[in-house]
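Q: Got a minute? One more chain.
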Amino acid sequence: MEFGLRNKIALITGGSYGIGRAIAIALAREGCRVAVCARGEGRLNEAVAEIRRENVDALGIRADATNL
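A: Always. Here it is, folded:
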């Protein structure tokens, strides 16, 4: 299904695992360019690599959104 998201930019906090990661991957499959924010660098890098396998731009940002 096409939602008209191709080349839009999505920022997902908590996107390195669980629901956040699933949302990031689903948006990537729709053609979104995805930025993922997470605390843990290891899982973050894995998520970004998985998103990039969908042939879209992905950026990983290591940060704690609860500590701003």
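A: Helices lie at 18-29, 41-52.
Q: Perfect, thanks.
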